[in-house]
Write a structure and sequence with these properties.
It catalyses: RNA(n) + UTP = RNA(n)-3'-uridine ribonucleotide + diphosphate. Pfam families: MTPAP-like_central (PF22600), PAP_assoc (PF03828), RRM_1 (PF00076). By secondary structure, the chain is α+β, with helices and mostly antiparallel strands. It folds into four domains: about 5-130, RRM (RNA recognition motif) domain (Alpha-Beta Plaits); about 170-225 and about 240-290, Beta Polymerase, domain 2 (2-Layer Sandwich), CATH 3.30.460.10; about 310-505, Orthogonal Bundle (Poly(a)-polymerase, middle domain); about 510-700, no CATH class. About 40% of the residues lie in helices and about 15% in strands. About 30% of the residues are buried.
């Protein structure tokens, strides 16, 4: 007689097979899963909408009075609360509930778990819901961590709770990695008998979190040829010659075939380092496997060594990683954990910190070992003298925030190999002398962090200009948080950093930065007898001040005449006192390296500028030509009444080493739409206009 299991949705041909199924692990696991689902429905409520301007902590405290809370999940306008038992739920559903005179809309939670092993028919919808569930769970975890930290009265106790919360036990992680590598070896050695799987990344450095994937490098143990080398080898050569493409294809096929061990196999062959993502079923772990050279293994060993040199490093790095993840700075398409860790190591190498040695120091006395042409080994016996640095972890964290909140990414390169801040101009000269591929390094990117081993690799090439601005803004906020927490022996520091509300705060005004380097124009506008004059005490300072004045005058002319902005000058960036600047006054006193002004406009004159005036006098300067175009556009827009309010603050700040002026535009309307449009245009156009205008003035011997 046929039987049907309602829990597993499986039909059986007879009683014998049905009872055998009931005793099986899969059925018992599904029964446990179903009971968990039922318990969640009985013990949970769904509240939406949440009263506006309500603190999440107050909501938790309010619902705690009805019974002990097991977990809670905050969404954009809702909260899901699961109690430890069902009595509070029955009470809340039975009568109207008010919170600060706001009647709450409380319903029983609907839990829709897909059956294990079955895929939802609506794949996109299922993925979306799954993503929302993950975000809610992460938010609930952060809230729980914040509440736990606030209950601990000392910094040391809070740090211990934080580390326990963000990491699993080291022994568990190592056991998990060992099992993954053993399974990979068992499967892949059928084709690659000399192969060896080696884990690297955060599981090796000790900087893993509970959400971390396991990174594995598989060394096939044989010579790997270029694809072009074996393209025409033909069928006569029976010896298998492995290439990166053939290895990737073969491993992908073998992972797909072993479905009992590996699932969710996702090959990504076009990545800079081709990777295959998969889920390791026995350990329930997401993994990435790569096959290219294995420099990542040595990078991980380097970071692991650095972490071992001082007991403060591991907690510091874990706090910084958690902070970046919470604020949405790190992740896919954003700041990589590797670049964030190396940036932190670079800060700790600085002379005023002096906590870590440079990579060159570690490599100075070891027998060289090369991989793909790069020196990768180092002396693990070198112990740095950090006795003069007694800073606490919170003080080091504040130093990190301050260092990168003020760091000039636009003109400098971060080099952990020698621990030096090098200007991009000097850096390019240096690496050209070492015969390193400048183009591969992408120094022109918004951020350049040189890999400590692979010296032509910029590990921060994915950082965008907007991401840099957000990162520096978050660093500046971090400095303020550290200063505030220092008043109470840093008791509030970790709760502040782990606050789940941080990510949902309204975004700050948009920022845009434009660097105007002096370069070949550094001596433009100097007196003809400048070199022979004896009345100038500091000629270098005079050149810097003169260049600042040149850029200021040109920017003023561009803003007023080309973009038709009204300028309201400001002086003293701290008190923001408004002053009147006369036409011929010199705002560049020896103590004034920064000028600010508010810009207001009605028209986006960046639109439709091409071919607006087909023939122009070739003797006109660049600014004069742009003014004619703007005048015509302004007449058309005024006639059509196409007004677009624009308001932003512009700051000009003199920078040295190398000499340049940093222009920062800050949106004042918080709408961002018109600012982003015209700001992006100005960021690309202003350096070109200034360069062409100066060339024209030199050619026709004109002065400002």
């Amino acid at each position: 007689m046929a039987k049907h299991c309602d829990v597993c949705s499986i039909n059986f041909i007879d009683e014998y097979s049905y009872h055998g199924h009931l005793m099986g692990k899969k059925h018992l696991k599904n029964v446990e899963y179903a009971n968990h689902k039922k318990r969640q429905v009985e013990n949970s409520i769904f509240v939406s909408p949440i009263p506006p301007r309500t603190n999440q902590k107050d909501i938790i405290e309010f619902f705690t009075q009805f019974g002990p809370i097991y977990t809670c999940k905050f969404g954009y306008k809702y909260i899901i609360i699961e109690y430890e038992n069902k009595e509070p739920v029955e009470h809340l559903l039975d009568k109207p509930i008010y919170f600060n005179q706001w009647k709450l809309n409380i319903k029983r939670r609907i839990v829709d778990f897909p059956q294990q092993g079955k895929r939802s028919p609506n794949k996109s919808s299922n993925n979306k819901n799954s993503s929302e569930d993950i975000q809610d769970e992460q938010l609930a975890e952060r809230l729980k961590l914040k509440i736990d930290l606030e209950s601990e009265p000392t910094w040391e106790g809070q740090l211990k709770k934080f580390l326990t919360h963000v990491q699993d036990d080291d022994a568990i992680i190592q056991e998990r990695c060992t099992e993954i590598c053993l399974n990979l070896n068992s499967v892949l050695r059928r084709t690659f008998p000399y192969g060896r799987a080696v884990n690297f990344g955060s599981t090796v450095t000790g900087l893993y979190s509970k959400q971390s994937d396991v990174d594995v490098f598989f060394d096939i143990g044989e010579t790997i040829y270029d694809d072009d080398q074996v393209k025409n080898q033909g069928c006569e050569n029976k010896t298998q010659r492995w290439t990166p493409k053939s290895i990737f294809k073969k491993v992908k096929m073998m992972l797909f075939k072993n479905k009992s061990i590996f699932s969710q196999v996702v090959p990504i062959p076009l990545a800079k380092i081709p990777v295959i993502k998969f889920h390791h079923i026995p350990t329930n772990t997401d993994c990435d496997i790569t096959f290219k050279h294995g420099l990542g293994v040595h990078n991980s060993q380097l970071i692991k060594h650095y972490v071992s040199l001082d007991r403060r490093l591991k907690p510091l790095l874990l706090i910084i990683k958690h902070w970046a993840r919470l604020l949405g700075l790190s992740g896919t398409g954003k700041i990589t954990n590797y670049s964030l860790v190396m940036a932190t190591i670079f800060y700790l190498q600085q002379p005023n910190v002096n906590l870590l040695p440079t990579v060159k120091e570690l490599q100075s006395s070891c027998e060289p070992v090369y991989i793909s042409g790069w020196l990768v080994n180092f002396d693990k016996n070198i112990v740095p003298d950090a006795s003069n640095n007694e800073s606490s972890i919170p003080e080091l964290l504040q130093g990190f925030f301050k260092f990168y909140g003020e760091f000039n990414f636009a003109t400098n390169v971060i080099c952990p190999s020698d621990g030096l801040i090098v200007s991009k101009i000097d850096f390019i000269k240096n690496i050209q002398q070492l015969d390193i591929n400048v183009d591969a390094l992408n120094v022109s990117k918004p951020v350049c962090i040189q890999d400590p081993f692979e010296l032509d690799h910029n590990i921060a090439e994915g950082w965008t200009q907007r991401l840099v601005q957000t990162f520096q803004q978050c660093c500046n906020e971090g400095v303020s948080n550290c200063e505030f927490a220092a008043k109470d022996d840093y008791m509030n520091l970790l709760p502040l950093i782990c606050d789940p509300i941080l990510k949902h705060k309204s975004k700050s005004p948009a920022l845009m930065q434009i660097a105007i380097p002096a370069g070949k124009f550094g001596k433009f506008g100097l007196p003809d007898d400048f070199d022979t004059r004896t009345d100038i005490d500091n000629k270098e300072k005079f050149i810097e001040t003169n260049w600042f004045k040149v850029v200021y005058k040109l920017i003023e002319k561009i803003f007023i005449n080309i973009f038709k902005f009204d300028l309201q000058m400001m002086y003293d960036g701290i008190s923001m006192k408004q002053i009147k600047i006369e036409e011929n006054s010199d705002v560049h006193t020896k103590d004034n390296d920064k000028v600010l002004f508010i810009c207001r406009g009605k028209y986006c004159l960046n639109r439709s500028r091409k071919n607006k005036i087909p023939s122009l006098d070739p003797t006109l300067s660049c600014i004069e030509r742009e003014i004619l175009i703007s005048d015509k556009l302004l007449a058309d827009m005024a006639e059509k009444k196409e007004e677009t309010p624009i308001k932003f603050i512009c700051s000009l700040e003199k920078k040295t080493n190398p000499l340049h002026v940093m222009i920062t535009l800050t949106d004042e309307q918080h709408t961002k739409k018109s600012f982003l449009e015209i700001g992006s245009y100005m960021r690309s156009k202003i350096p070109i206009i200034i360069e062409r205008e100066l060339l024209h003035m030199i050619q026709y011997k004109k002065q400002l």
